[in-house]
Design brief:
The complex is a heterodimer of chains A (224) and B (241).
Chain A lengths: L15 H33 L4 H16 L2 H11 L9 H26 L3 H10 L3 H16 L1 H14 L11 H12 L2 H30 L6
Chain B lengths: L3 E10 L2 E11 L4 E5 L6 H8 L7 E6 L2 E2 L7 H6 L1 E4 L11 H11 L5 H14 L15 H14 L4 E5 L7 H16 L4 E4 L3 H7 L2 E6 L2 E6 L1 H6 L3 H7 L4
Parallel strand pairs in B: 3-8, 3-9, 6-7, 7-8
Antiparallel strand pairs in B: 1-2, 1-4, 4-5, 9-10
Helix pairs in contact in B: 3-4, 3-5, 4-5, 5-6, 6-7
Chain lengths: 224, 241
Amino acid sequence: MQLAAFPFFADLATYWPQIAKGLRDTILLSVTITVTGLIGGIGVFGLSLSSKRIVRYVTQSYVSLFIGTPLIVFLFLLYYGLPNLGVKLSPFVIAVLGFTLNVSAYNARYLTIAYKGLDQAELESARAQGFSQFQVFRLITAPQSLRTSVPALTNQAIQNVKDSSIVFLIQYIEFFAQMQEVASRTFLFFKTYVFTALVYLVLVSVVVLAARRVERKLAIPGLA
Amino acid sequence: MALLEVRNLVKCHGDKTVLDGVSFELEEGEAKVIMGPSGCGKSTLLRCLNLLNEPTSGEIWFDGEDVTRPGVDVRALRSRIGFVFQNFALYRHMSVLDNVALALRRLKKLPTREAEERALEELHRMEMADKRDAYPAALSGGQSQRVAIARALAMDPKVLFFDEPTSALDPIMVREVVTLINRLYLDNVTILCVTHDLSLARHISDRVVFLDRGKVHAEDRIEHLLERNDEVIDEFFGGEG
């Protein structure tokens, strides 16, 4: 992208390498936490269906804890709290860890809602055929729950892109942090933040377009 | 020895006794129907027989083996019993062919091609091969029922359980399914069918086990049941005989 091509933003062109680095780091973080959050969400969802009451209780408590508390608290706990215990992790690792714990809880909740809409007779039918509990999960429950919760999971991916901007508070210098620096150096606050908003809009639009393709590809024929 | 022998089977849900000492036998090649008023425990009985519901007490002998003893391989037992559910319960995210081939690939460990060939054989038998790539949502009730039967038969079960096979179908499709089950019976498939449909029972069954309030109230040929002067049976059939 050549900022000079857009006269309104030409003043920011000098800072293009810094902006590009921020953009790359935002994309890296967003993609990472979307993938780890999805894998974590499927894992937590699977555990929430366990036949063992204690496992169900622990996973439900986990989901309630992370949905019920602000993400920033956990990011600060990991960033400022862990060094008190002698553990020091990089801002990127902390960001991935904090987001994964949080996003997994939300994704598990979406999958649970989708699961409640499944035809339970299909699951009983699979058990009647001789499939193990894990096979029923892997072959029937997870594919159907994932496919019906694509819109919710997509919203979460969009949220991940937008929420990634808060990690500047734990010194992970991503796109938003870079733009703050550009704004404070140039004093072009209006232009800088309009540009920032437009870039986030483009990023989110890319996610939305990709999600629509995934939704079409994974739609179960004959079902809305 | 009978293929299936049920001895004094009891199933309780909390304080409620759903099955109260049920005993009966099913011979190989026989078609037996379980009938009775709503809530008499018919479907629970069927689910107890393949251990989808755990019996509270009693014995179930299947193919010479006590399957209620501790440590029995439940999954192996279930794979030898075909189960056709009331609402067909096809896997809606899979094509017809995959519905039938899934257990062959994952449980019988057949290579994909072999599993699909075997699945197609059963679909041909059920006259559903032309719908192999269709998804369950695109099938009629009768077609879904045929796929569900093909799925059960593909595993080459010792016995086929039907749970209310005609309750979700219109009268024309009911006739189709009756003909189909009758054909299976003539092919020497052992059948145990829970139904409230007198016409189905008349066409397919050798004998009827009549349940009432969790107990075997009577077991006889259907025409003999209808001839009995029995208040419970008469009330159930409502003078249909």
